[in-house]
Amino acid sequence: SESGGPATLVSWGSLGWTPGQSLALPSGARLSAKMVTVNQKLIKQLKSGQIDPVTNAYLAWPKTSGKTVLRVRSWLAGDRYRPLGAPGRRKLQDLFIDRKIPLKERHRLPVVCREDDEPLWVPGLPPAEAVRVGPATRSALELTYRYFNDRMTNPVPNE
To answer: Closest by alpha carbon to 41, among 140, 153, 155?
Structure first.
């Protein structure tokens, strides 16, 4: 809590989410997703680090005729994935510690997953290697995380 007492954990079940929708989270934050066409300018921005990983991610995603459905949920103990550029899978908990993300904020951050519950992105962390945007990528999901709750500070310390 703000008074220095025990942290209030914000958790929720798995929510279905379709790109094009904005999703209000229990923490007061909002997630949005839209399909974008990948071009050389975007690839250059991604390679140069011009995209803020706290608030934005681009996931390689094929355009399909059916609806793309993602799952969004709170962090669960044991969650792991292979971050962009990493040699193997890592626990989200270890990545949170490496980035000095406070415990109370870890439970507020959304975990964006495939329908099979495989984590793809958490604000402040790199997206999953499996959805890396590269020169052959034609379309991507642009994910945007915004926190509007006045009591909530930036969940990820600046490095």
So the answer is: 140
Nearest alpha carbon to residue 57 among 40, 66, 45, 65: 45
Alpha carbons 36 and 80: distance in angstroms, whole number? 27
- CA atoms of 56 and 98, how far apart (whole Å): 19
- CB 133, CB 69: distance < 8 Å: no
Give Rg (Cα) of the chain: 15
Q: Are residues 22 and 30 in contact, defined by beta-carbon separation less than 8 angstroms?
A: yes
User: Is 17:31 a contact under the CB 8 Å cutoff?
Assistant: yes
83, 121 contact by CB (below 8 A): no
What phi and psi values does residue 32 have, to the nearest 5 degrees? -135, 155
Q: 């406070």: which residue's tokens?
A: 102
**pLDDT of residue 20 exceeding 60:** yes
pTM (two decimals): 0.82
pLDDT digits (tens, 9 = 90+) for 132-159: 999 899 999 999 999 864 444 455 544 4
H-helix segments, the chain: 40-48, 92-98, 103-106
- Are 54 and 127 in contact, with CB atoms under 8 Å apart? no
CA distance 92 to 4: 25
